[in-house]
Specification:
398 residues, Rossmann fold
């Protein structure tokens, strides 16, 4: 395929193409951040499986473990390759860049592309671990999808981002025009709650872990982690008290079950890491969240405590996952990487700004420009150091 100039094409919170050079540059920037964050004597996982590894926290996890601990990483992802003039998905380009950088730097990094919810991909991944790694000592479940087909029932399930019990109306940003508006979410019915829990809860994480354990692919002392988000009071109707909250409760319960199982079988354990709010394609679609993140980013940047995905995953690895150390948790056994976000002074500042913000003063009171920049960078656009007027090769192999 001849090279082409790739310009960003978006519809609201959906970007329908990706820039290969921009994605590659963003990956290199995360690699540089990981190299700087780890002590020279840092020791941690040597062989890691990351399910949901091509964007966001999963991608940053692979980078932190690889360039921080020198870990061999096997990633599982579901991405589309380029086809004609159509670019690949951002996760495809991210993964291609990560694999190329790993080869350059003498690290082992491979991938499995397919539906991680399916039995076929679980089996293929197990076979790859057996043949190429032997066992893994860390399994990270970072899969975030709005839809899942349960391979045991054949039912296709869809998550719903809704409150429970009563409707909720709150401020948000219309991403089509940057207007501060009110959005109303109607309450979920029982089937929507059930489906959300089955998509976003802990069932698939448990199935993965049980398969790895049964196949003898988890090393002695192996650990597993899943990622979650709680958020502040302003987002509770959607997160903590809504359908997502029910799913997160199920995830935490699953962690306790897996912790007991791995502790008994291998002397290992399972934890949920509650991470900070960041811009993702999913978060951009949730009422309230774009406005909250825009205000939060302004406050945290002003206070010098803002973190992106790679900074969060570097901190997770250095503070919680080094060899011989137990993860630090709260009373509910959760790793709290959202501690800086939920600090009282940060939340007080966000709460003070919340009732004041309007369409007219959005750019003055918030970091909506930072939200937009982060959204574009998810797809390789607006990345510093990239010439977006130049032709690029979109046919990139993994």
């Amino acid at each position: 395929m001849p090279k082409q100039v790739v310009k960003q094409r978006s519809r609201g919170f959906i970007c329908i193409n990706a820039h290969p050079a921009g994605c590659a540059q963003a990956v290199e920037r995360q690699i540089a951040a990981a190299r700087e964050a780890f002590p020279a004597d840092a020791q941690g996982a040597k062989r890691a499986l990351i399910v949901g590894s091509s964007t966001g926290y999963g991608l940053a996890t692979r980078i932190a473990l690889g360039w921080g601990f020198g870990a061999k990483t096997l990633g599982v992802f579901f991405e589309k390759p380029p086809a004609g003039k159509r670019t690949a998905t951002a996760g495809w380009y991210n993964t291609a860049a990560l694999h190329a950088a790993a080869r350059r730097d003498g690290l082992w990094a491979e991938g499995v592309n397919g539906d991680a919810f399916s039995d076929e991909i679980k089996r293929e991944t197990a076979d790859r671990i057996r043949a190429e790694l032997g066992t893994v000592d860390l399994f990270v479940y970072s899969l975030a999808s709005p839809r899942r087909t349960n391979p045991r029932t054949g039912e296709t399930l869809n998550s719903a981002l809704k409150p429970i019990g009563q409707s909720y109306t709150g401020k948000t940003i219309d991403l089509n025009n940057g207007a501060v508006t009110e959005a109303t979410a109607e309450p979920a019915d029982e089937d929507e709650i059930r489906q959300t829990v089955e998509v976003m809860g802990g069932e698939d994480w448990r199935w993965w872990t049980e398969l790895l354990l049964e196949e003898g692919l988890l090393a002695e002392g192996a650990r597993t982690l899943a990622y979650s988000y709680v958020g502040p009071e302003v987002t509770w109707p959607i997160y903590r008290d809504g359908t997502i909250g029910r799913a997160k409760q199920h995830l935490a319960q699953t962690a306790d079950q897996l912790h007991a199982l791995l502790g008994e079988k291998l002397g290992g354990g399972a934890w949920v890491s509650v991470n900070k709010a960041v811009v993702t394609q999913a978060s951009a679609a949730i009422p309230v969240v774009p406005l909250y993140i825009s205000l939060l980013f302004r406050v945290m940047k002003e206070k010098g405590v803002h973190e992106g995905t790679i900074e969060q995953m570097n901190r997770l690895a250095v503070d919680h996952l080094q060899s011989g150390a137990e993860p630090k948790t709260d009373d509910a056994r959760l790793i709290r990487l959202d501690d800086l976000e939920l600090a009282p002074d940060v939340q007080a500042a966000v709460s003070e700004l919340w009732p004041q913000v309007t369409t007219e003063n959005l750019d003055q009171l918030s970091d909506y420009s930072g939200f937009r920049d982060d959204f574009s960078e998810l797809f390789g656009f607006g990345v510093e150091g990239v010439d977006y007027g130049a032709e690029v090769e979109t046919e990139v192999d993994l």
